[in-house]
Amino acid sequence: MSFPWIRMAILSGGLMGMGYALMKATVPSPEQTYAAMAPDLRKKVDANRTARLAQEQELKRLIEAQTKAPEATEPIWADTRNPRR
Fold it and tell me: Is 31 in contact with 42 (CB distance < 8 Å)?
């Protein structure tokens, strides 16, 4: 007798589907997690978000400056007025 592949595939798929449904039913969304936080934790999360956004904006500015630089071989933080050679 051969291994029951079809039955095993159906059972495996059903088990994975039940696990996914259970996860969706029990795990809170990020908004629900934020709403359930204490006010002091919300302030820390907001400060971290603000710092991360500022860092991302700085990185975007550096990337744009690098792509628009006439001398693309040099890094943008290199000081062309006072080289250390």
Answer: no
Condensed to tens digits (0 to 9), the pLDDT of residues 4-56 reads: 999 999 999 999 999 999 999 999 999 999 999 999 999 999 999 999 999 99
3-state helix/strand/coil string of 35-79:
HHCCHHHHHHHHHHHHHHHHHHHHHHHHHHHHHHCCCCCCCCCCC
Torsion of the alpha carbons at 6, 12, 17 and 23, rounded to the nearest 10: 180
| Cα gap 83→77, rounded to integer Å | 11
